[in-house]
Write a structure and sequence with these properties.
Elements (H helix, E strand, L loop, with lengths): L23 E2 L11 E5 H12 L4 H8 L3 H21 L2 E5 L1
Helix pairs in contact: 1-2, 1-3, 2-3
Length: 97
């Protein structure tokens, strides 16, 4: 295995039509520690926006992003897990571009 490559296939491109205006959401008690944060990718935020905000079906959202339904589902599931973790444990949410 070459250095710098992870396991499995390389992540494919995803079409993102809305880049979030904020990159970090902190709790009032944030103490500056990075281990007290979760990192969402822009495609994960786009999945949340399309499905949970705009109300698209997963199939419609997958078509919008140019990915399979399975890929969209994996990104959406991971994004929801990260947001739930941040809310339940008071962690900072960071959106990484």
């Amino acid at each position: 295995m070459h250095q710098g490559y992870g396991r499995g296939r390389r992540r494919g491109n995803r079409w993102v039509s809305h880049i979030p205006p904020e990159c970090e959401f902190r709790t009032p008690a944030w103490d500056g520690e990075r281990d007290m944060s979760v990192v969402l990718t822009v495609p994960e935020v786009e999945c949340l926006r399309l499905v949970d905000v705009l109300g698209l079906t997963q199939e419609e959202a997958a078509m919008e992003m140019g990915v399979s339904r399975k890929t969209l589902w994996n990104d959406l599931k991971e994004a929801r897990r990260k947001v739930a973790l941040a809310l339940s444990e008071g962690k900072t949410i960071i959106i990484r571009r």
